[in-house]
Amino acid sequence: MLKTAKRLNSFTESVIREMTRVSNKYNAINLSQGFPDFDPPMKLVTAARRALEEGYHQYAITWGAPAFRKALAEKQSYWMKLEIDPDTHIVTTCGSTEAMIVAMMTVCNPGDKVIIFSPFYENYAADVILCEAEPIYVRLYPPEFRFDTDELRKAFSDGVKALVLCNPSNPTGRVFSFKELKVIADLACEYDAFVITDEVYEHIVYKPHVHQYIASLPDMWERTISCSSLSKTYSITGWRLGYVMGPEKMINVAKKVHDFLTVGAAAPLQEAAVTALNFPLSYYLELQRDYTERKNIFLSYLNHAGLRYTKPEGAYYVLVDISDFGFDSDTTFCQWLAKEIGVGAVPGSSFFHEQVSHLIRFHFAKNKRTIRAAGERLLRIKEKI
Ligand code: GLN
After folding, report:
1. Ligand 1 lining (C-beta closer than 6 Å)
2. Is residue 231 part of a domain?
3. Does 121 lie in the same domain as 31?
4. Tell me, what's the pLDDT at 27?
5. What pLDDT score was predicted for residue 385?
6. Which atom of ligand 1 is nearest to the CA of 34?
7. What are the tens digits of pLDDT across the range 308-366?
8. Strand partners, 229
9. pTM given for the model
10. Is 101 left (phi over 0), alpha (psi -120 to 50) or beta?
11. Whose CA is nearest to atom 3 of ligand 1?
12. 196 lies in the same domain as 342
């Protein structure tokens, strides 16, 4: 009998994306899969139209159009306080999703161990398994979602090859402090491990929290592969523009992986994105202000609805505790919520390695009008139960 690859048996299709289909089925307001329902800045749309008219229709250089890498290197050098070289430190990818698998394939041999904090964004375990490596889970303890240093040390001492760090974190909303990053960095150095980051929410951080790039910590540039994307920062999740950033030695290998996986990200959109990468500082301040407002509106509805949650420090997600409602699982609750209340959410269990079924994840990357409409619906939860 014909059989498909065994390594794929241990994970399912994305639950996040499935919940978008569930939301659509019930015509619910979709606060499950995290993407905006508002347009990117008009200047970007104009730049994309111009790029198409100017004839960028064929492959760009496989590791990224020169103009894109130059603008990205300038922007990230400023934010990361590092000197990023456009030719030797960057591979442009199809979103951070490709960046993460490229990073993982760059460092992992079959059988290698990779630390993943749990809860985690579902792609990481799948990426590790696709490399035939082994995920080692280290818990982030609710409600604050902090790790225990002794547990982390124990995991490192098991001979791990790399640690995956999502910061600001999906789904917890944590922004790791300098002290926490230093603990991770010191252990990575002590046990000679790589750090692979997912920093797609780098510009969505709520005061007084500040995002710090672990690659910028002493001795960390040489062992960190930083992955990020333009999706969340410029509200262009469908453009699929991301990147891998790191020292030349690793990037040379990552270039090969990327070349054979996808050849390259969309050429005209890379040209258009130069406009975004050159936005002034005020753009990022405004983005932060807008997301802070969205967060505050959404959290005030959760408060009024009497829901318990962990306050996000960054990113645009909030984990809500549903243990008061007497459902047998978070999945049943999310189905009920979409059908009866008209709001889509993701069952928390899809983010945890350990058995957890009392949390669900909402996102609030939506127009304030949409957030209010969803909030009004959530106010009805208690009377419907
Ligand atoms: N990162 C987003 C989320 O967690 C979108 C995921 C996706 O479908 N690529 O919802």
Report:
1. 16-17, 33-34, 121, 170
2. yes
3. no
4. 97
5. 75
6. 10
7. 999 999 999 999 999 999 999 999 999 999 999 999 999 999 999 999 999 999 999 99
8. 242
9. 0.96
10. alpha
11. 34
12. no
